[in-house]
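Inverse folding, one chain.
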């Protein structure tokens, strides 16, 4: 009995030391082809080299990331199923929806890979070329201005509400079904402001059809070097960005977490990876320690939670 017990005690660590012994599945809760999917596939390719086992992407879109996220929450916590976690799945959905089918405590976020900064844009009919001038323009309009977004509770709408509070202005929200019609409304001056992902607004900005007033991240963007941050524009504590990263079931063994984290973090430092996503206006993050990741997610939850509570936003 003692020998058998000792045999198990000795064999278990040796077996786990060989992890991973088979392919790893990376669940991407988005459709193929978008920037989130591109990120997931590039990360999986790099991790495959580091872990010496295939990291296979499985797209499981649906219900604003909840379908894929639920599937990982129910998976065996053995390190072989990983989620491409985002601010939507890990932070916003649990704050916005009455039922998500999972709890944030079901997961451990182990990587913040990319931040998706947003840009504040207006049209050429608006007499403002910076954020300070726009705030004065909006106040003079007495609440008669509109802003567009891609839907209630979307990060673009929440970031605009955050900005409204910061600037002390009042505007009416007009939701659209996608960035294209929301931007068309802005170009037509049906609305006067939009907070948008950089990639969709950039062609209009470069063509001189839209004016970029500010970016919402902590630093300026390589693709818009002359556009200041909101923080630089007189609001030093302002920060609004969505993010992509990795999460695993909370009970995943620490040894597997450490290897996954190390492999993924190394990919973030590779020049080809960084150049690919920087060219899309996405900010590849420097690797963070687990404590730094935990603080980042907690701060993100607090800032988005405040705007959701203040505006009493709840989704079914």
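Residues assigned per position:
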């Amino acid at each position: 009995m003692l020998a058998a017990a000792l045999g198990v005690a000795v064999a278990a660590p040796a077996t786990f030391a060989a992890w991973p012994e088979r392919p790893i599945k990376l669940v991407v809760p988005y459709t193929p082809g978008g920037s989130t999917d591109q990120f997931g596939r590039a990360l999986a390719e790099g991790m495959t080299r580091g872990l010496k086992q295939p990291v296979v992407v499985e797209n499981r879109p649906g219900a604003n990331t909840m379908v894929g996220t639920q599937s990982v929450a129910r998976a065996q916590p053995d390190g072989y199923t990983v989620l491409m976690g985002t601010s939507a799945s890990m932070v916003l959905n649990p704050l916005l929806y009455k039922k998500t089918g999972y709890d944030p405590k079901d997961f451990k976020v182990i990587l913040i890979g990319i931040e998706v900064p947003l840009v504040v844009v207006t049209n050429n009919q608006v007499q403002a070329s910076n954020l300070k001038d726009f705030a004065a323009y909006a106040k003079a309009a007495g609440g008669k201005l509109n802003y567009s977004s891609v839907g209630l509770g979307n990060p673009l709408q929440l970031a605009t509400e955050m900005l409204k509070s910061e600037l002390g202005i009042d505007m009416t929200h007009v939701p659209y079904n996608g960035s294209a019609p929301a931007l068309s409304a802005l170009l037509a001056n049906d609305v006067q402001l939009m907070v948008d992902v950089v990639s969709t607004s950039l062609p209009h900005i470069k063509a001189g059809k839209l004016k970029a007033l500010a970016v919402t991240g902590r630093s300026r963007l390589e693709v818009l070097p002359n556009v200041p941050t909101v923080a630089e524009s007189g609001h030093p504590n302002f920060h609004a960005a969505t993010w992509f990263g990795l999460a695993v079931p909370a009970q995943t063994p620490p040894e597997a977490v450490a290897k996954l984290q190390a492999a993924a973090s190394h990919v973030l430092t590779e020049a080809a990876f960084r150049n690919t996503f920087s060219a899309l206006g996405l900010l590849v993050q420097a690797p963070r320690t687990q404590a730094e990741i935990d603080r980042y997610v907690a701060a993100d939850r607090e800032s988005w939670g405040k705007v959701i509570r203040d505006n009493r936003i709840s989704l079914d």
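The mean pLDDT is 92. The longest helix spans residues 290-310.
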